[in-house]
């Protein structure tokens, strides 16, 4: 039997009405409590009704909804995602999906500031990457929404970084079955197109291309998935991106950017190191000219 009835934080959960401060400060404790209950059997001692994870999640949902009257949409979104992770840990897919749905609704309707949107979408992507409770249909729906919103951010660089971050939604090492190399490559190619568009916009606006930092960041994603064994990311694709970056850096219209240059040089040193290391990984890199 779970002996939680004497805990004042637990009474906050079961109380019908609480002032706002009392509600909000106990949410973190509630998330810890729901994980504890998941591993216990029986009713809570001294309570008329058993405290179950589902009931606590219902109370949490009501509490987070109250944040809309403050208003604190960014905080509410973070809490929805934390609750989704807790539901994931309790293996309750419908509840986890509902919290994600509420997070997306909040993102669509309440978060208008462009910087807040960037932060929010990366929180969504990162949380979704850690989820393993979803079936194929629900996960596809959520990843489709995440990639769609990523490509609609206000600034091209933000779009690019969010889209290539979405590639990790389709290749998760510790989850069986989530290794979709084709969709990973689609994300990376889309990010590359956005980076190209950002360069063109910089040329139109300033008469010179912007720094190549986005291309170098994407190159590092190519290398990551190449080493993970994604057959869609080939040595020739990496070579082509290296040549593109080199060409952009040598162009007279490109704005000098020492951090970008240093990042690219470091990436080339890494490739050279892998080539010289030998073994299976050395063979993979053998055809790449660094």
From TrEMBL:
Subcellular location: Cytoplasm; Endosome membrane; Golgi apparatus, trans-Golgi network membrane; Prevacuolar compartment membrane
GO biological process, one term: protein transport
Topology term for the membrane: Peripheral membrane protein
Record keywords, A-Z: Cytoplasm, Endosome, Golgi apparatus, Membrane, Protein transport, Transport
First-listed, main subcellular location of the protein, grouped into a coarse class: cytoplasm
GO cellular component, one term: endosome membrane
InterPro entries, A to Z: Vps35 (IPR005378), Vps35_C (IPR042491)
Keyword field contains Zinc-finger: no
Protein's UniProt name: Vacuolar protein sorting-associated protein 35B
Organism of origin: Vitis vinifera (Grape)
């Amino acid at each position: 039997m779970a002996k939680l009835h004497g805990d004042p934080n637990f009474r906050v959960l079961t109380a019908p009405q609480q002032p706002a401060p009392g509600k909000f400060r106990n949410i973190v404790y509630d998330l810890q409590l729901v994980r504890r209950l998941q591993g216990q059997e029986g009713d809570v001692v001294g309570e008329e009704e058993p405290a179950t994870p589902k009931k606590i999640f219902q109370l949490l949902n009501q509490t987070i909804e109250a944040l809309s009257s403050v208003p604190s949409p960014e905080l509410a979104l973070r809490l929805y995602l934390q609750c989704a992770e807790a539901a994931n840990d309790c293996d309750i897919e419908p509840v986890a999906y509902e919290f994600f749905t509420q997070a997306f609704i909040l993102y669509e309707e309440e978060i208008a500031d462009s910087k807040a949107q960037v932060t929010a979408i990366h929180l969504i992507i990162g949380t979704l990457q850690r989820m393993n409770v979803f079936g194929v249909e629900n996960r596809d729906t959520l990843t489709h929404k995440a990639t769609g919103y990523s490509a609609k951010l206000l600034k091209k660089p933000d779009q690019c970084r969010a889209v290539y971050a979405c590639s990790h939604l389709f290749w998760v090492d510790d989850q069986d079955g989530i290794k979709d190399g084709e969709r990973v490559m689609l994300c990376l190619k889309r990010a590359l197109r956005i980076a190209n568009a950002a360069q063109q916009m910089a040329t139109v606006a300033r008469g010179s291309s912007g720094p190549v930092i986005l291309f170098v960041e994407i190159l590092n994603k190519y290398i990551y998935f190449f080493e993970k064994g994604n057959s869609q990311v080939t040595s020739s694709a990496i070579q082509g991106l290296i040549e593109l970056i080199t060409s952009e850096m040598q162009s007279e219209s490109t704005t000098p950017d020492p951090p970008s240059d240093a990042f690219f040089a470091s990436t080339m040193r890494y490739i050279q190191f892998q080539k010289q290391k030998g073994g299976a990984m050395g063979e993979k890199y053998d055809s790449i000219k660094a």
